[in-house]
Write a structure and sequence with these properties.
single chain, alpha/beta, Rossmann fold, 2 domains, six-stranded parallel beta sheet, 13 helices
């Protein structure tokens, strides 16, 4: 390839969190190569993240055959596979028509790329994704600044309607869900936290899907607002953006908040905090650091024989204290992002 790449395909299977942490690398490509056309090959469960990332040419889903075959028929200067371990995406990168194919060199995937890149388990994942750009001459310092994600005026208006009852109060958004049981803090603890915050005049809103409906209903009975199952990903992002902060376990919703520039209190145990926990003084990470923690490797968390003590030993009082610490910081009080 001579000169700057004009077209790139980024392959991103997996969940919401990985997709959000890939966005700084996308922004870097846009800064480094003005006018470059970037297509994403994602899947149904994470494609919504890229609707919050401006200036992409297209987002296709490999688990929808018509969209997958459309990507296969295209030609690109560069294909970057951002998957960390599984082989399927590396095979896809290999059969696509591209002069340069970049991806992580885990297991035998390295043979399928022109530029295999080392991967480390304890590196912050956004930094790992940035290393995929090294063969293109991009450096980490070229990252764009400001929030990573944005949303439409329509989504902002919908969020305003949902939260109207809480106007004039600091708002804390709770996400009690997690992709696996070991990462859940427990519904009863989130309910107790909501009670304590409500007594202090803090507005509480719960976001999530079908799996969080029961938690949301319970918190509604003590004065909170439940939006579980009522908002899509973009509307959920707009709700979080109007909040003073988010409380969540290790989840994709946590990374949405970070991508919006919203402060967070995050609860870690099985997951690798060095790789996935938010960075910076705007974020408080609570982690008991038990000898058996973290136990997650390449996204797989084994069943816990001690009932996820790393999560259950996190107390409601210490989470409330972390929330109050962030709320007390003048520059965060009344935080709200414009669409």
């Amino acid at each position: 390839m001579q000169g700057f790449p004009k077209s790139l395909l980024i392959i991103r299977p997996g969940g919401i969190g990985d997709a959000v942490l890939l966005v700084p690398a996308l922004q870097t490509l846009q800064v480094r190569f003005p006018g470059v056309s970037i297509d994403i090959l994602a899947e149904r469960r994470n494609a919504g993240v890229f609707s919050l990332c401006p200036a992409l040419r297209s987002v296709r889903r490999y688990d929808i055959p018509s969209e997958f075959f459309e990507a296969l028929r295209s030609r690109y200067d560069v294909v970057i596979d951002s998957e960390q371990w599984h082989r399927l995406s590396a095979v896809v990168a290999r059969i696509l028509r591209a002069e340069i194919r970049i991806g992580f060199d885990t297991n035998d995937r390295r043979r399928l790329f022109t530029h295999p890149i080392p991967y480390e388990q304890d590196d912050y994942e956004a930094d790992s994704f940035m290393r995929l750009l090294a063969p293109l001459g991009c450096a980490a310092e070229e990252e764009g600044g400001g929030p990573l994600l944005s949303f439409s005026t329509r989504d902002a208006e919908a969020a305003g309607c949902h939260l109207k009852r809480l106007e004039g109060r600091p708002i804390v958004t709770l996400f009690p869900g997690a992709s696996i049981a070991e990462r859940r803090w427990g519904a009863e603890r989130f309910v107790r936290l909501a009670q304590l915050l409500g007594r202090r005049g803090v507005g509480v809103v719960v976001v999530g899907g079908e799996g969080e409906l029961a938690d949301g209903r319970t918190i509604e009975t003590i004065g909170g607002i439940s939006l579980c199952g009522l908002t899509n990903l973009a509307e959920t992002a707009a709700v979080i953006a109007r909040s003073s902060l988010l409380v969540s376990g290790d989840s994709g919703i946590l990374h949405i908040a970070v991508g919006l520039g919203v402060p967070t209190v995050s609860l870690f145990g099985p997951g690798r905090a060095m790789k996935w926990a938010p960075r910076g003084e705007n974020h408080i990470v609570i982690n008991k650091n038990l000898p058996c923690s973290p136990c997650t490797t390449f996204g797989y968390t084994p069943r816990c024989p001690i009932n996820a003590r790393c999560m259950t030993e996190i107390t409601v009082d210490e989470v409330e204290e972390a929330v109050l610490t962030l709320l007390s910081r003048k520059n965060f009080d009344g935080h709200q992002q414009k669409p």
